[in-house]
Amino acid sequence: MGGSIRAQRSGKGGFWFRWRRPSVADRKRRATSREVRFYNAILHDRSLPTAIEVTAGLGLTGLELNSGGFLPAMHIPTFDEILTSDTARDDFLGLFEGTGVGIAGLNCNGNPLHPDLAIGAKHAEDIRRSIRLANRLGQLRVVTMSGLPAGEPGGRRPNWIVNAWNSAALEVLDHQ
To answer: Which of 6, 68, 126, 144 has the fewest Cβ atoms within 10 angstroms?
Structure first.
């Protein structure tokens, strides 16, 4: 349980991921310090300063920010500027200073394997952008979903087989 996944650039312009087992010090620290954090999607209709205020008012210490995928990055309105400008990055991080609330990571939940290439390609790019943004913000955590491909060759909709006992689903599982 625990550990970390590090994104590294491959020689072909993509990324590959490496999992690192948590150290003994990491496990001891986690066992003695519990920070309660939450995902900001529930506060999508409020500004980031208001979301931070609500988070702090609930006694929570971290806000996991949506950064793309199924939901837009509502609380990162300067996403593109942060990727290129130190001033934009510092201004964004400044919103958290002195609030008792930090960024608990980025959440880019989408379906990069979606059989509709317009959706899959956009979600895959959102994940890549989120990894770059995490680097700019000093974050080590990007929550993603692997997604679902089609259930059959040429299929247009994702297909999620939730059990393997149904023999009708075995061909779909083999395809996926």
So the answer is: 6
Amino acid at 176: Q
Confirm if 149 and 113 have CB atoms less than 8 A apart: yes
Phi, psi for residue 98 in degrees, rounded to 5: 75, 5
Q: Which CATH architecture has domain 35-145?
A: Alpha-Beta Barrel (3.20)
Q: Is 57 strand, coil or helix? A: helix
DSSP one-letter string for 120-134 = HHHHHHHHHHHHHHH
80-97-138 Cα angle (round to 5): 50
pLDDT in tens, 48-101: 999 999 999 999 999 999 999 999 999 999 999 999 999 999 999 999 999 999
Chain-wide mean pLDDT for the chain?
A: 83
**107 three-class SS:** strand
